[in-house]
Amino acid sequence: xxxxxxxxxxxxxxxxxxxxxxxxxxxxxxxxxxxxxxxxxxxxxxxxxxxxxxxxxxxxxxxxxxxxxxxxxxxxxxxxxxxxxxxxxxxxxxxxxxxxxxxxxxxxxxxxxxxxxxxxxxxxxxxxxxxxxxxxxxxxxxxxxxxxxxxxxxxxxxxxxxxxxxxxxxxxxxxxxxxxxxxxxxxxxxxxxxxxxxxxxxxxxxxxxxxxxxxxxxxxxxxxxxxxxxxxxxxxxxxxxx
Length: 242
Fold this sequence. Notes:
Blueprint: H1 3-16, H2 18-42, H3 48-85, H4 91-98, H5 102-122, H6 124-133, H7 137-144, H8 148-159, H9 163-197, H10 202-241
């Protein structure tokens, strides 16, 4: 499988099954809005008293992040179901089934983070090596019911002997799908610079910043199924070659 094939297959899968991913995008949009509102309510946290007062909202924001992760895991399951069975189950069914995997995925993510962080303490290169080795821990837990430690070993086994190939197959689709977002972000920065140089009112600058942030956030949501599809298709492909 080539990088271009992953990109094309991911695009086609999401395009043909767009209706299956709309509920996930809508749910993530709802969580993003609630998180934004919570962040506004928390406000600046410069003192211990402010932290105590904002603690309920901090806990609420953490819960929203947890829900966002849960929904994202659902997209991985949906992609795998479409690839294997030709269709995805309703989002409620998928999320209910995936609930049992939430804490194992979090624990595996923590262990992965510690491994990559340990790699950074040594040198940057070991951290990069570990990050590629452990890319598929979530997929191993979610799609093959692997235990936490077993998922780390299984992910590495899929990458062994083809590290450079897997690195490219991860990076290429990511760059392809993220490129539009980077372009809009750069255009936004340029627009804000022009507005500032023209000494336009601060309200206009604020409106421009908010508009750019909203467009970027919407692009991230729209790209999320493609990113999930690319990594999941790669995981399934590596399994076939194992």
